[in-house]
Specification:
- This protein is α/β, with parallel strands linked by helices.
- It is built from 10 helices and 6 strands, in the order βαβαβααβαβαβαααα.
- It has one domain: Rossmann fold.
- It is globular and about 55 Å long.
């Protein structure tokens, strides 16, 4: 019997973006980047693949993931040649990048990451079709449809999701990205790990799900927050953590504690499958 890494059959989606609350919490943007780096590094070390929907901005979280994988290769099972990262580009994002740059990136990332360039409805655009005429501007509806389609692809490609940070104003789409990706995981019955300690949209999600109690907190003002009303702490407990453990994960700003909890939940969920 060959050795198998504990999370080698798992693809874990990470949802992270800048939080407007960092300064008020006594944190700097670097804390969020460090959190993502450490979470991703531990997941890779246990054989997991990472799923992300990024925009390829310079010094952004997508670039950080690519750099991380270049330094810390995924500990894959023997014979498992799957790339460590699945990255999805929404239609308006992909359309803003010259086709030759996209093809070069796909080539540069070969073996390390798979880059999916999506059309408006979330289907893959073949590399040889990137030169077709495409819009130079996009309506709010274009963004909403394309981002929702991308997030459905992210959910379909992953087995669990981790959310932290996230803006609650100035976003594109039908609701904040962190919220829509968390909601997609809940609707799919996937394990969801909510790190609300860094504020932002993830904190709103933690409050709405009953994992975080902040006296005087008001319901979030962003669109479609009411869609979370059908979910609560029992839905979070599908992530392998107890109610108290989920509450701890929702409030901690200590990355090592959060990582320990996330890995604990994921490994608990793996035990029945590994026993078969």
């Amino acid at each position: 019997m060959s050795y198998r890494e504990p999370l080698s059959q798992c693809a874990i989606a990470i949802s992270v973006s800048d939080s407007p609350d960092m300064a008020g919490l006594g944190l700097a943007p670097e804390h969020l980047r460090d959190a993502m780096t450490e979470i991703a590094r531990h997941l890779l070390a246990m054989g997991a693949r990472l799923v992300y929907g990024g925009d390829l901005r310079v010094n952004g979280f997508t670039e950080l993931l690519f750099e991380l994988v270049a330094r810390h290769r995924r500990d894959a099972d023997i014979g498992d040649q799957r790339p460590a990262i699945l990255n999805f580009l929404a239609w308006p994002v992909a359309a803003s990048i010259p086709p030759e740059d996209l093809r070069r990136l796909v080539s540069d990332l070969r073996g390390m990451a798979t880059l999916h360039v999506l059309d408006r409805d979330g289907g893959d655009i073949p590399l040889d079709a990137l030169d077709a005429p495409r819009p130079t501007s996009f309506s709010a509806d274009d963004w909403a449809v394309a981002l929702t389609a991308m997030r459905r692809r992210l959910t379909a490609a992953s087995h669990a999701r981790i959310v932290l940070g996230g803006r609650v104003q100035g976003f594109k789409g039908r609701m904040p990205g962190i919220a829509e990706e968390a909601l997609a995981a809940l609707e799919a019955g996937q394990p969801l790990y909510v790190m609300g300690g860094f504020g932002g949209c993830a904190r709103d999600v933690a409050i709405m799900l009953g994992a975080l109690n902040i006296p005087g907190a008001t319901p979030p003002g962003w669109p479609e927050a009411a869609l979370f009303q059908g979910f609560g702490l029992p839905d979070l407990q599908k992530n392998g953590l107890t109610a108290d453990e989920n509450r701890t994960l929702a409030r901690t700003v200590h990355v090592d504690q959060a990582i320990a909890l996330i890995l604990r939940g994921l490994l608990r969920l793996q035990r029945p499958a590994q026993a078969d």
